Amino acid sequence: MSAKRLEHGSQDDKLPIRMLHDRVLVRQDAGEGERRSGGGILIPATAAVGRRLAWAEVVAVGQNVRTVEPGDRVLYDPEDRAEVEVRGTAYVLMRERDLHAVAADRFEGSEDSTGLYL
Question: Is 97 exposed, middle or buried (0-12, 13-18, 19+ CB in 10 A)?
C-alpha cells in the first residue's frame, strides 16, 4: 500500500507521512473566535460554553480507517485530542472512533444523510 502524502501548500511542500492503523489527522477550522447565535447576537470568543464540539478537515487517514477520506469535514471533541505541528501548521491526531460525525459531498442524497445543512 502506498503512502498518502500530507499536502501543505504548494506541490514542492509535500511531506511523506503514512498514518497508521485507525488514526486520522485533521486540520482545525479557523473559526474559533467570535460567533453569532441564530438570533444574530454576537458571542465573544471568551464566553464560557459547555462542552462544545468542533469541526475540522481530514488531511490524512490510516489504512484501517473506513468511514472518512481526506477532504471530509468531521465533528470531534476538542478536549480529546493530541496536537502535532508539521512545518509550522498545527494538526490534531485522533482515532477514527473519536469522531462524532462526517460531512462530505458524497453523502448527499444517500439514506445515511439526515438532510441537515451543517
Answer: exposed
Q: How far apart are CA 111 and CA 22, in angstroms?
A: 25
Which residue's C-alpha cell is 465533528? 75
Cell readout for 46 is 471568551
Q: Shortest CA distance to 23 belongs to which of 108, 112, 74, 11?
A: 74
Grid coordinates standing for 45? Answer: 470568543
Give me the count of residues in the chain.
118
Instruction: Quote the CA–CA distance of 69 and 73 in Å, as a whole number.
Output: 9
Residues 31-77: pLDDT tens digits? 555 666 677 777 676 665 666 788 899 999 999 998 899 999 999 98
Handedness of CA 46, 52, 57, 58 (dihedral sign): positive
Residue type, 27: R
Identify which has the larger pLDDT, 91 or 111: 91
List the grid coordinates of 94.
485522533
